[in-house]
Amino acid sequence: MRAANPEPTTELEYHSDFQLLIAVLLSAQTTDKAVNLATRKFFPKHGTPKGLLALGEAKLSDHLKTLGLYKTKTKNALATCTLLLEQHAGKVPQNREALEALPGVGRKTANVVLNTAFGQPTIAVDTHIFRVSNRTKIAPGKDVVAVEKGLEKFVAPEFKLNVHHWLILHGRYICVARTPKCPQCGIADLCEYRPKTKA
User: Fold this and answer.
1) Fewer CB within 10 Å, N side or C side of the chain?
2) Does residue 199 carry a pLDDT above 80?
3) Could you list the active site residues?
4) Which CATH topology does 17-116 take?
């Protein structure tokens, strides 16, 4: 995977740590493509905590209405802006505890921000990574925390920074949910998934 994509990164569009945090917060149960279409409407002029608060709930909600759970995401994004300004001088904190204390930020979102914004070797397990890890048997687990712990245990340190990007992209484009594209897979020979597709 490293040979095919030496410097993988998120497909979310952002220009600051704050914008990445908001984009990841918005991406729950929504595609990165849909999030990008929404954030392009307000990030250029309102892509800071003060900017989003100035935009206000009604206008932000209107920008986000194409996303699932947009009303909750609007409230969480604005509440997060308030806490960032009140407790962190408007900056995104670089530790898990502080990130997970922000409204709408769970373990997966915190891991993405710590990894992508701050270069920490965290592994964010989303639906794609969960599927790939279980299907290939690289790190099987009954829930996302079990898969995350399995990957942390078995992935060599030199790959930990990028492994979640590789696995997300692999799950998004090759090891897809319904009919995995096994003939196009660069790790098919290492995969323990038995009912491989032929074409």
Assistant:
1) C
2) no
3) 108, 126
4) Endonuclease III; domain 1 (1.10.340)
